[in-house]
Amino acid sequence: MLEVITVIDQINAILPQTQCRKCGFQGCRPYAEAIASGLADINQCPPGGDLGIGELARLLNIDPKPLNPTFGEHKPKQVAFIIEDACIGCVKCIAVCPVDAILGAAKFMHTVIASECTGCELCIAPCPVDCIVMQPVSMTIVHQGHIDKSAASQLAKKRYEARCLRKEKESEEKAERAKQKKAKLGMLKKAP
After folding, report:
1. CA–CA separation, 86 and 130 (whole Å)
2. What percent of the chain has pLDDT over 90?
3. What 3 state SS string does 132-183 have?
4. Dihedral of the CA atoms 129, 134, 140, 144 (nearest 10)?
5. Residue 144 pLDDT more than 50?
6. Residue 94 pLDDT exceeds 50
7. β-strands 102-103, 111-112 pairing
8. 114 contacts 141 by C-beta, under 8 angstroms
9. Spatial separation of the C-alpha atoms in residues 189 and 191, rounded to whole Å
10. What value, to the nearest 5°, has the Cα angle with vertex 124 and ends 77 and 44?
11. 148: which residues sit within 8 A by CB, 6+ positions away?
């Protein structure tokens, strides 16, 4: 079977796959869809910066433009870091990480898998004790091969898609349990 690569797929492949939502959309794919349909401009992705805008402009055969400051500013690649002594194990950061790069359990200290972190910053706001800070990507991560933008983006995309599938499955299982519980309650009410 021949795989059809759409303009949306091509746009999405250019985006950094941080899933940061700074563009105003719920992730890179929705932003790619909005660009393709003319609902969003090519200059709304701070993590992609001027290089990303230039690649999008070439793909779409339009003139590049500067990053729209309304959506933020381009920064060097960063990763989240959890200050262990301050972490209370609330799991709020785990719940919002779009690529499952944070490990930990309730009431236990958490940690970030730096090589998997996209630098989206979504974990910072929900932290009740402000124990998450952003740090520049270390040379260790660079030497592990994660400097390759394309490979890092594809890995982040796969992790994001896997998380989405897991969340969807969890939601379906929860709905099924609720349905079964409701059926049991209905049967108990009918019993003499």
Report:
1. 8
2. 69
3. EEEEECCHHHHHHHHCCHHHHHHHHHHHHHHHHHHHHHHHHHHHHHHHHHHH
4. 100
5. no
6. yes
7. antiparallel
8. yes
9. 6
10. 55
11. none
- Give me the amino acid identity at 12: N
pLDDT tens column, 9-56: 999 999 999 999 999 999 999 999 999 999 999 999 999 999 999 999
Instruction: Walk me through the domains of the chain, giving residue ranges and CATH numbers.
Output: 7-71 (1.10.15.40), 78-144 (3.30.70.20)
Contact 64, 57 (CB under 8 A): yes
Angle at 75 between CA 69 and CA 78, to 5 degrees: 140
Amino acid letter at 117?
A: C
Residue whose pair of structure tokens reads 């009918």 in the numeric block: 190
Which of 114, 108, 112, 124 is closest to 77 using CA atoms?
Answer: 114
Q: What is the pTM (predicted TM-score) of this model? A: 0.81
Amino acid at residue number 71: F
Query: Is 192 a residue whose pLDDT tops 90?
Result: no
